[in-house]
Write a structure and sequence with these properties.
456 residues, mainly alpha, 3 domains, three-stranded antiparallel sheet, three-stranded mixed sheet, elongated, GIL1_IRKI_C, coiled coil, DUF641_pln, GIL1-like, Protein GRAVITROPIC IN THE LIGHT 1
Length: 456
């Protein structure tokens, strides 16, 4: 009965209206349907059925361009953060971090590709994918989060650099401590060397030591002279005229020998005043030890010889321009190098207000000259540590050659134009390197002989 009632009720609810003349007939049909047991497939006739449709849904919201842009920027920030993490994971190499950052970067690239495809494949705004209303807020949050991750990666890299710098600083501090320890040991050895017993002083101050230092000094003077001659040639100077102005009327065996005159000019100029204790002071001449104990003077000279031998002369002169060595270099440079000569060496250089004739670090002869002056200064300190003090001499022009006191600077040479009957000896043209007296021993002076012919 409930089934029949439900069927009848359903039929009644979907009926909207009927013809007036059919109303009674419908009621009779309903009564008959109640009394009878109709089959489920029973078809109801004589009624007008209208299907009710649901209310139409509102149109989907259109894609907000601002939301799309925010999503795009958020994805870009994510990719940038992932790529930065990928770079950071390579130094030092962390395989797991590299793989994770690589996957993240690839996923963000795919997200960018999807955004691009969704925009260009749907030109109609109504068919574009719909983003939630809060997507722009979520995009801003994501962008800020990825910016924080980027800053975190930068901070991690900077912290790694700081840790590395700290490790380097610690290593340098340890090296400094080691150097200071080594310096202290050397200082103690230097103190012992500067005040050795008398027997050791005599062993140190031998003729062989002085001769060895003298040979080193001569090599440095030759090196400076070659540098000077090279600058003169490049500047257009005539070496013949320069040599003739220094020593006129000298008969050179070869044209190239005129450079010996320039070597003599430099060497004798640097050794001028060598026999004075105040080698660095202007106007000091002759040996003067008045009021000074000889042994004290010897020990002071030996100490200065050892100390100067262990320092860099360029650092010494730049660190203390008022020291005796700096004054010595300045005075000798002004005596030997004329301002006009130096100006021609730097003719094509832009020196601005450069003071010609003064020893300056920017000058073309600065380093070789300081090295030469340092060698002669060291030799002078060693000479004044001997007892008696080492003497110096040079041979005047026109003096007959003596194998005891002189040595020809041109080794392979013979005299020419000699008077065989008078058996005259060759004459000295000029002294190139002065000679020295160490006690009773003579170190020969090196001279250039006038009127020689080189043996081929």
């Amino acid at each position: 009965m409930l089934q029949k009632f439900a069927l009848a009720f359903k039929t009644k609810t979907i009926e909207l209206f009927a013809e007036d003349e059919e109303e009674e007939e419908d009621r009779a049909s309903i009564s008959a349907a109640i009394d009878l047991d109709p089959a489920p497939e029973e078809i109801i006739t004589g009624q007008r059925v209208v299907v009710l449709k649901p209310d139409p849904l509102p149109p989907p919201p259109q894609l907000d361009p601002e939301t799309l842009i925010l999503a795009l920027f958020a994805t870009l920030s994510s990719f940038r953060a992932a790529y930065l993490h990928l770079q950071t994971a390579h130094s030092p190499l962390l395989p797991d971090a590299v793989r994770s950052a690589d996957r993240a970067a690839v996923s963000h690239l795919r997200r960018l590709s999807d955004l691009k495809d969704s925009y260009f494949q749907n030109p109609n705004p109504s068919t574009r994918p719909v983003l939630p209303f809060s997507s722009h807020l979520q995009a801003q949050v994501l962008e800020n989060q990825h910016l924080l991750r980027t800053f975190e990666a930068v901070v991690n890299r900077l912290q790694s650099d700081i840790d590395r710098k700290d490790a380097e600083a610690a290593a340098l501090k340890q090296r400094l401590r080691d150097v200071e320890t080594a310096n202290s040991k050397l200082a103690r050895r230097l103190d012992r060397a500067c005040t050795p017993p008398d027997g050791k002083v005599e062993a140190l101050l031998s003729i062989g030591v002085f001769d060895s230092v003298l040979k080193d000094t001569c090599r440095v003077v030759h090196r400076f002279t070659r540098r000077l001659v090279d600058l003169m040639k490049r500047s257009g100077w005539s070496l013949d005229m320069a040599a003739n102005s220094i020593y006129p009327n000298v008969d050179y065996a070869k044209a190239e020998h005129c450079s010996y005159a320039i070597l003599s000019y430099i060497c004798l100029g640097m050794f001028r005043g060598f026999d004075s204790e105040g080698f660095s002071r202007e106007g000091s001449g002759g040996i003067g030890l008045d009021g000074i104990d000889v042994n004290t003077q010897r020990m002071n000279s030996l100490t200065q010889f050892i100390e100067h031998s262990t320092v860099d002369p360029l650092e010494l002169i730049s660190g203390s321009s008022s020291c005796d060595f700096a004054k010595f270099c300045e005075r000798k440079y002004q005596q030997l190098i004329h301002p006009a000569m130096e100006s021609t060496f730097c003719r094509n250089s832009d020196h601005g207000e450069f003071e010609w004739g003064a020893l300056r670090a920017s000058g073309p002869l600065y380093e070789p000259f300081v090295s030469m002056a340092s060698s002669i200064w060291t030799l002078h300190k060693l000479a004044w540590a001997y007892d008696p003090v080492v003497g110096i001499f040079h041979v005047a022009k026109g003096t007959e050659f003596s194998m005891v006191y002189m040595e020809s600077i041109v080794q392979r040479a013979v005299t020419m134009g000699l008077d065989r009957e008078k058996k005259s000896r060759p004459k000295v043209g000029f002294t190139v390197v002065p000679g020295f007296r160490v006690g009773k021993t003579v170190i020969q002076s090196r001279v250039y002989l006038n009127g020689l012919k080189e043996v081929v």
